[in-house]
Each structure stands twice: as C-alpha cells, then as structure tokens.
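A student in our group prepared the protein record below, which I am reviewing. What it holds is a sequence and that sequence's fold in token form. My question to you is simply how this chain folds and whether the tokens agree. Do not assume that whoever made the record got everything right. I have pasted the whole thing underneath without changing anything:
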Amino acid sequence: MNGILARSLRWAAIAATWTLVLGACAMHRADVEPALVETPTTLFPTGATWGDGWSFLERTELTGFRWMSARSEVRLAPAHRWSTMRLFVQLVVPLGSLRRPPTIRIVLDGRELDRFEGVSGLEARAYLVPAGAAADGREPTLAIETSETVDVNGRTLGVALERASWDPVGGAS
C-alpha cells in the first residue's frame, strides 16, 4: 500500500503543477463567494499555528505537504473586521489508497464553508470570506475533515494539504 500511496502522491504533485499553471475556480456556498485560485508561495500563510490532526512536513521534488488524519485544525493569522479575506486550500486525495472517494468539509470558526466529494487526486478550493465573518482580532480556526482514511505504518492518513493561503483582498468596506 505504501507504493500505491507514493505513486498517487507523485502524480498528484505533477497534477498540482499543471493546476497552478492553468488556474481554476472553486465552488462556493451561498454566502461565501468563489475566488480565483492563485498560486500561494508557502504551504501555509505566515502566522498560522498547526493544531491537532496534522502530521509532520514532508517533501517531494516538486512541493512540500502535510498529511492530516480524519480531522485537523490550524489557527490562522487574525483578520481585521474590515478586511474581506481569501482562503485557499489545495488538497491531495489518495484515491488509489482509499475505499471510496471521501467527503471533505472545510470549516472556518465552526461555520461550514464547503462540503464536497474528493473525486480527483487534487482538490483546489478558494473562498472569499466577507469582512467580519472571521474572528475579529482573534486567530480564526480552520478545520478540515475527511470521511475516509488509510492506515500506513501506524499513521492514519486522510488527505494531504499541499498549498494554502489566507490573505486580505480589500480595504475598509
């Protein structure tokens, strides 16, 4: 199973490169607008604090990534109440190692932003979070959940976070 996972990850890294080159648009919920997917420069934005559910930082020739278990949390840098924020996540889904495509949830401060089936090896999603919707002056908590995991050498792996960003996109509203 380890070889299958490594091959899935290698192909996902190649797909990620093409996805970043070509760009994409994300699906959205009613009150969260879609945002154009841009290329973030780091695995996660400056000021983020890794919480429960994350594995250590791993690397391939092309990228860095962190595996997560069934549920993971990360505390993001504080958002100002007047700033619309753009949240971007790019997840590697090891479809060849899972029993079925997982249901993935993206939750910000307890509020579900998205729920989708991870049917491709790479899922890139972006959301515009309206001013005031994220914790004002506090570090908002991003939770990512997946319904399917696989056990590899004693590690419970769900999906891998390959790219992410949390950035202001506007001034005072």
